[in-house]
Design goal:
heterodimer; A: alpha/beta; Rossmann fold; 5-stranded parallel β-sheet; 5 strands; B: 357 residues; alpha/beta; 3 domains; 8 strands; globular
Chain lengths: 132, 357
Amino acid sequence: MERRIRVLVAKPGLDGHDRGAKVVARAFRDAGFEVVYTGLHQTAEQVVEAAVQEDVDVVGLSILSGAHGTLVPRVIRLLRERGMDDVAVLVGGIIPRDDVAALKQAGVAEVFGPGTSTETIVEYVRGLKAGK
Amino acid sequence: MTDIAHLAELVLAQDKRALARAITIIENGLDGARELMARIYPETGGAHVVGVTGAPGVGKSTAVDGLAQEFRRRGQRVGVLAVDPSSPFSGGAILGDRIRMQQGSLDPGVFIRSLASRGASGGLCMCCGDAVRLLEAAGYGVVIIETVGAGQGEVEIMRYAHTTLVVVVPGMGDEVQAIKAGILEIGDVFLVNKADLPGVDRLVRDLEMMLDLKPESPWRPPVLTAVAREGTGMAEATDAIERHAAHLRASGGLEGKRALQAEAELMDLVGGRLLAAVAARARERGAWGRACARIAGHTSDPYTEAERLLRRYAAEIAAPRRRAPQREAARRASAGSARQPPGPTKRPRGGRGRQRP
């Protein structure tokens, strides 16, 4: 039986634009992954609870509101508290280049800004799994 | 203690992370799946399983969210399995039922797991039965299974659910549609959702007429209306589900369902394992490929080829070859047993010692 990569695509915080998240979700599906999409306006707690119950390999956070500095570390902290240490956290959306280093320092595996091709993201996720 | 033993204990202790990992193990047939199921099985059988089915877009997920809330208000812990279709091309899936279940997202008494159908026909997924058992073992008294958006042929839910709720909406066909076979036949409760749309009364009448045409039965499925998005009708639907549950218990229908489910499960497992074993051996020796080629070339037919494969390879599974004498002696020596004489050993028939069927 083939084990499929499970990805949570989440929209934390107040931003209401999810077209990008949906495009990425579809690309993941076409790459053979199983994608749980949370919908809009998720709190960090809701994102992590979903990640736990769905036993995902990757959590993808889509943030266009500028609140990544607050939301992302909170999600990562909660994931660690629940014992989800081997889950990779990816961030996409509108993330200023200057903030990328801090996010990675906080535990983000990779940041994919606007203009990134879906192929790049898919290959990255496949690489994560292969490395495990 | 083995990892699996520890995991099973955590599941029984209602640890959500352990439950989620356990579902992953059985969904993918990972190492330890069988042991895991064996360990938790004695603690299962206690939940009321509700199947929710209906065409795509009728509001199943929203209704499930409403039902879960109502069961929670009545003191139950609720587990939800939400199945969505896998892409026939990529094998991937978008599992989007969870979006409609926001009310339960942080409730400690609710557990929601999305599952991809992975090619299973019938509206569900192969691991559904085991996933229900895991939820039961973790102490969820009500388990709701939401099928993929199903049309008329996906009646698999009957195998797993005690009470099947069929969700319909107005404007999807006339009364001829209502009397066709399929999911409209399997409903124990009918829910006309989106009851704020035109055509509700007509649809309720059509459904009642369809039910009138069925042979007399002690349970007459109620036809209810709701607007799940607004939360109306959910309490009544929950009442109907509870009444059906009581009816099953009182009428002995519950035992009947359990017996049918056990039979179906055993058949699946035995059939699946047998097929896998025969196919593996046949493929190993190239016999499978040759058989396919003969069928495709019309020099033989599928029945003859299937018979041939079964005669040759099924027999091998039932009576494993005896070990060679030298290897047997060496095995005993390393196992530390000095009492048994070397020589060919006779294995008990049936493989696992004498057990009464």
